[in-house]
Amino acid sequence: MATYDVGDQVRVTATFKTAGVLTAIAGATTNATHRLPDGTDKSPAPTITAGSGTGIYYADIQLDQVGTHTIKIASTDVVVAAETIELVVAKSIFDHS
């Protein structure tokens, strides 16, 4: 698993398929949650954007705490599903505070 520095920005993607075919999902039914290492949810929630093709969505995540960040992208439309990823953030070796 990759390790990121505090302050990095990461693009997290989710792909939704029906019977192996990429499926478009209404934007209003797609949401993201960013759980911070301290157990709280980031507010406001990340914005979901349609990606490079049908059924591909992404959110840009700012990593501002040391620890494990959990990001979940979910849909309640044609495909009722969710994709979850964990990102590990360490203190930068360049941060001398």
Question: What's the arrangement of secondary structure elements?
Answer:
Elements lengths: L2 E3 L3 E7 L1 E2 L2 E2 L7 E6 L13 E2 L5 E7 L4 E10 L3 E11 L7
Parallel strand pairs: 1-9
Antiparallel strand pairs: 2-7, 3-4, 5-8, 6-7, 8-9
User: What best-fitting shape do the alpha-carbon axes yield?
Assistant: elongated
Q: Please count the beta strands (DSSP E, at least 2 residues each).
A: 9
Biggest sheet character: 4 strands, mixed
Radius of gyration over C-alpha positions, nearest whole angstrom: 15 Å
- The CATH architecture assignment turns out to be Sandwich
**What is the percentage of strand-forming residues?**
over 45%
Low-confidence stretches: none
Taken in chain order, the helices and strands follow as EEEEEEEEE
Gap from first CA to last CA = 26 Å
Q: What percent of the residues sit in helical stretches (DSSP H or I)?
A: under 10%
Any idea of the CATH class?
Answer: Mainly Beta
What would the average pLDDT be, to the nearest integer? Answer: 85
Class based on secondary structure composition and strand pairing = mainly beta
The named CATH superfamily: Immunoglobulins
Tally of separate helices: 0
Structurally, the number of domains stands at 1
The strand order across the widest sheet is 1-9-8-5
CATH topology: Immunoglobulin-like
